Amino acid sequence: MRAGRERAGAQGRTLNRQHISSGSRFESEIGYSRAVVAGDWVFVSGTTGFDYATMAISSDVREQAAQCFKNIAAALTQAGASLDDVVRVNYILPNTADFEPCWPVLREYLGQARPAATMVSAGLLDPRMKIEIEVTALRPQALPR
Fold first, then answer.
1. What is the pLDDT of residues 35-59, one digit of tens each?
2. How far is 50 from 61, CA to CA, in rounded Å?
3. Domains of the chain in sequence order
């Protein structure tokens, strides 16, 4: 993963934004970051089940969900957060029948955080993609003690 910092803003305002990249070809081809850190917040883009090292993807929705979380966890780690810091999650699945089989995987990775959640049924870019997961996390130092 790569990270970059940006310090330019509208109307002379200084922004402190960290851009995190997984190295996925989609990020450079489409023009987005895997995650953006803005203050204490970490916004992780919709993440699919591709293994970015090999660009392989399983045909099993549960395996894809697990790989999504591995990819998300890597971005969160680079941002100074973890899956336990996730406060919001959005699941996007083309086939709603695939959601329930994923529940044990979702519980495994987010059961401690128990974030607010939404599931949406929508088409995804590649027909091999069976789930996309987007999260927002609040870095631990921002949480009240």
1. 999 999 999 999 999 998 898 999 9
2. 11
3. 2-142 (3.30.1330.40)
Q: Which residue has the tokens 């310090």?
A: 7
Distance CA 6, CA 96 (A): 38
Query: pTM of the prediction?
Result: 0.86
On the CB side of 144, how many CA atoms lie within 13 Å of its CA?
0
**101 in Cβ contact with 65 (< 8 Å):** no
* Contacts (Cβ under 8 Å, ≥6 apart) of 127: none
pLDDT tens for each residue of 80-97:
999 999 999 999 999 999
CB 107 within 8 A of CB 77: no
Angle at 133 between CA 93 and CA 112, to 5 degrees: 120
